[in-house]
């Protein structure tokens, strides 16, 4: 297939791009590099730097690449905490950018769409693990923006025959030898813990230890980024015959923040000092997925279900890339006096 991957220079998008190329697909990456890294884009992908708010770029892109038949949409603002501080950045930009993409895609006849959605749709679940029939109560403007995009897809499906799937990830983690998690600023638990193990931070701050959980810290369901990538590929393969449009994706086992830190101590051999801080706004106490639907309907099966394996793969990438994609071998700047013109 010819697949447009928005956000293909980001963490999950770049690893999914590499897996798509490995499976023989042609991939075009559109990324504005606000969070992503050009170095993360697979060399066999066609890379276009551009923003989804830019209609001219979108028009040009679909005109220049008329073979695009599918879209995987990763590009968005993704931070729960930030969305509580800057709600419009999420409620407006994420939704308008997705609308722009849908407008241009459907005008150019693209009928296949996979959305990167989120567990943040489920702020107050009645049942853990969380299944797709759980009431959708977004926990933040971030979650609300993804829910609105899910609804847009529903209406595009009704009105223009779009085929789509929404994959609601719980906590993506881990890496491959070539690619890993590198955000500026970093806000995610596992890379922050590994930065402590690398001596780049003095301690990890635990955001609240007074939650109603077994040790007072938040429980999350960590899923290997490669297992997410494979779920995208499965959904795309089955898009013409999907029984459902939304799938929750996790391992079905929750770990507290303290348990994640303890696992990282085991794997890195570093004591990883901790400091307890206040709760982070927008964080629900427990998010654990039931992925029964995607297992049963699409035959998805995680290859890396164990937390230790997930953290170990992240650690291997971080140890090999202690400064992320800011590699020491980047080309020197072009001397300003060299041309003589
Ligand atoms: N967390 C923490 N300290 C940090 C970063 C995160 O205690 O420095 C907690 C956070 O409150 C949440 C869990 O770790 O309960 C996972 O957070 P992360 O930001 O990695 O992912 P999210 O759950 O927001 O998608």
Low-confidence stretches: 329-341
Estimate the strand proportion: 15-25%
CATH superfamily of the largest domain: NAD(P)-binding Rossmann-like Domain
Would you state the CATH class of the largest domain? Alpha Beta
Helix content: 25-40%
Intertermini distance: 46 Å
Q: Specify the biggest β-sheet.
A: 7 strands, parallel
What's the tally of helices?
10
**Distinct small-molecule ligands in the complex:** uridine-5'-diphosphate
Going by helix content, strand content and strand pairing, the class is alpha/beta
How many distinct beta strands?
14
Mean pLDDT across all residues, rounded?
94
CATH fold descriptor of the largest domain: Rossmann fold
Please state how the strands of the largest beta sheet are arranged side by side: 3-2-1-4-5-6-11
Order of secondary-structure elements: EHEEHEHHEHEEHEEEHEEHEEHH
For the record, the count of structural domains works out to 2
Named at the architecture level, the CATH assignment of the largest domain is 3-Layer(aba) Sandwich
- General shape: globular
Q: How many whole angstroms does the radius of gyration measure?
A: 20 Å
């Amino acid at each position: 297939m010819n697949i447009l991957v928005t956000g293909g220079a980001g963490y999950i998008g770049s690893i999914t791009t590499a897996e798509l190329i490995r499976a023989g697909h042609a991939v075009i990456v559109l990324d504005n590099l606000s969070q992503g890294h050009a170095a993360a884009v697979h060399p066999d992908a066609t890379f276009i730097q551009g923003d989804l708010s830019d209609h001219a770029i979108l028009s040009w892109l679909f005109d220049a690449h008329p073979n695009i038949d599918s879209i995987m949409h990763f590009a968005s603002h993704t931070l729960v905490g930030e969305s509580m501080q800057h709600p419009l950045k999420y409620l407006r930009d994420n939704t308008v950018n997705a609308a722009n993409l849908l407008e241009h895609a459907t005008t150019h006849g693209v009928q296949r769409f996979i959305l990167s959605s989120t567990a943040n749709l489920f702020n107050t679940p009645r049942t853990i693990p969380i299944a797709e029939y759980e009431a959708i109560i977004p926990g933040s403007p971030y979650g609300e923006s993804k829910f609105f995009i899910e609804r847009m897809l529903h209406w595009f499906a009704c009105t223009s025959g779009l085929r789509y799937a929404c994959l609601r990830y719980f906590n993506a983690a881990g890496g491959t030898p070539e690619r890993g998690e590198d955000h500026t600023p970093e806000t995610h638990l596992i890379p922050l813990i590994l930065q402590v193990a690398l001596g780049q931070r003095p301690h990890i701050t635990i955001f609240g230890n007074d939650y109603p959980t077994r040790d007072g810290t938040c429980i999350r369901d960590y899923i290997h980024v490669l297992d997410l990538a494979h779920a995208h590929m499965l959904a795309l393969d089955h898009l013409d015959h999907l029984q459902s449009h939304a799938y929750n994706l996790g391992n079905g086992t929750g770990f507290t923040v303290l348990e994640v830190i303890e696992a990282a101590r085991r794997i890195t051999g570093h004591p990883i000092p901790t400091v307890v801080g206040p709760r982070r706004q927008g964080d629900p106490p427990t998010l654990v997925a039931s992925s029964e639907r995607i297992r049963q309907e699409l035959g998805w099966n995680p290859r890396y279900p164990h937390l230790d394996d997930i953290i170990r793969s992240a650690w291997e990438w971080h140890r090999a890339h202690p400064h992320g994609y800011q590699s020491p071998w980047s080309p020197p700047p072009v001397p300003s006096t060299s041309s003589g013109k």
